[in-house]
Amino acid sequence: MQELEQDLIGTVGMVTVPIGPGRSGEVMLPVRGGTEAYAAHADEFIAKHSRVVVVECLSGRTVLVTPCP
After folding, report:
1. How far is CA 37 from CA 29, 34, 54, in A?
2. Are strands 34-41 and 62-67 parallel, antiparallel or unpaired?
3. DSSP label of 61
4. Which tens digits make up the pLDDT trace of 36-66?
5. Where are the alpha helices (DSSP H) in 1-69?
């Protein structure tokens, strides 16, 4: 599983549940030829339908994201 987590860094996904500081949301990420939901955290508010990039894997199903430039 550790290898998959490292592969997620740099992955671009879509926010499906808004994310806020101190509040987790949800993102859909392309994984293994499909799309999977992950819990997501961020240092700033990110609205639903925003594109984000994974900057860190916090656990097997939780990622830290930042908005796409």
Report:
1. 6, 10, 13
2. parallel
3. T
4. 999 999 999 999 999 999 999 998 899 999 9
5. 2-8
* Residue 10 tokens, joined: 């740099």
* Residue 67 in this model has a pLDDT that exceeds 80: yes
Q: Is the dihedral of CA 63, 17, 50, 30 positive or negative?
A: positive
Do strands 12-17 and 34-41 pair parallel, antiparallel, or not at all (unpaired)? unpaired
CATH for 2-67? 2.40.50.140
Nearest CA-CA partner of 27 in 62, 58, 68, 57: 62
Six token digits for residue 38:
């992950």
- In the chain, where the domains are located: 2-67
